[in-house]
């Protein structure tokens, strides 16, 4: 189990007009398609704890207030193959109950089915962390998994 959980189990992406976004317990990933041949000097990206702004060649692609807070100093962006910008934001609240319903407060919301799949994924990721000897990457979950699933922390070991 050397690969991270999301690499073994896949991601649950939410499609947008400019690309997609997805999340893990700790991070939010944003992938923005840009015109081929884009250079880093063409990109203006501002990452705040609650806001984001991205423009390429003077054209605003993404701007607004994030769904929840992030750790400002941990946010990064990279330009890949001169056609994709990948932004990684570190969540401030990193528990399975903190499943972002949308990327921005009132934009790019996950549809109900995708939101359900995201919540299942975060709950399984939480189980994986609590039980490192088991591999939950291919597991299915049903029942009470909203808000991170049941809390077993008070049970005696």
Automatic annotation (TrEMBL):
Q: What is its main location?
A: nucleus
Q: Which InterPro entries match?
A: CS_dom (IPR007052), HSP20-like_chaperone (IPR008978), NudC_fam (IPR037898), p23_NUDCD2 (IPR037902)
The organism's taxonomic lineage, starting at the top: Eukaryota, Metazoa, Chordata, Craniata, Vertebrata
Q: Does the keyword Signal apply?
A: no
Protein name per Swiss-Prot or TrEMBL: NudC domain-containing protein 2
Annotated region Disordered: the residues are 135-157
Keyword Transit peptide assigned: no
State any GO CC term.
kinetochore
Subunit and partners? Interacts with LIS1.
Where in or outside the cell is it found?
Answer: Chromosome, Centromere, Kinetochore; Cytoplasm, Cytoskeleton, Microtubule organizing center, Centrosome; Cytoplasm, Cytoskeleton, Spindle pole
Sorted alphabetically, the keyword list is: Acetylation, Centromere, Chromosome, Cytoplasm, Cytoskeleton, Kinetochore, Phosphoprotein
Residues forming the CS domain are 14-104
- Which biological process annotations from GO are given for this protein? protein folding
Its encoding gene is what?
NUDCD2
Task: Spell out the PROSITE patterns in the cross-references.
Answer: CS (PS51203)
The Gene Ontology terms for molecular function here are: unfolded protein binding
Write out the function statement from the record: May regulate the LIS1/dynein pathway by stabilizing LIS1 with Hsp90 chaperone.
């Amino acid at each position: 189990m050397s690969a991270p959980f999301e690499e073994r189990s896949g991601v649950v992406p939410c499609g947008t007009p400019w690309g997609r976004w997805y999340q893990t317990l700790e991070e939010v990933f944003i992938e923005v398609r840009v015109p081929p041949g884009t250079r880093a000097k063409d990109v203006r990206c501002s990452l705040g704890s609650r806001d984001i702004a991205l423009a390429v060649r003077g054209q605003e692609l993404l701007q607004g207030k994030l769904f929840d807070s992030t750790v400002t100093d941990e946010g990064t962006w990279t330009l890949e193959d001169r056609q994709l910008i990948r932004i990684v934001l570190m969540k401030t609240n990193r528990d399975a109950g903190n499943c972002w319903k949308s990327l921005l407060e009132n934009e790019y919301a996950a549809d109900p089915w995708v939101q359900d799949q995201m919540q299942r994924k975060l709950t399984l990721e939480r189980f994986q962390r609590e039980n490192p000897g088991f591999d939950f990457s291919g597991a299915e979950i049903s029942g009470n998994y909203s808000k991170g699933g049941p809390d077993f922390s008070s049970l005696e070991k």
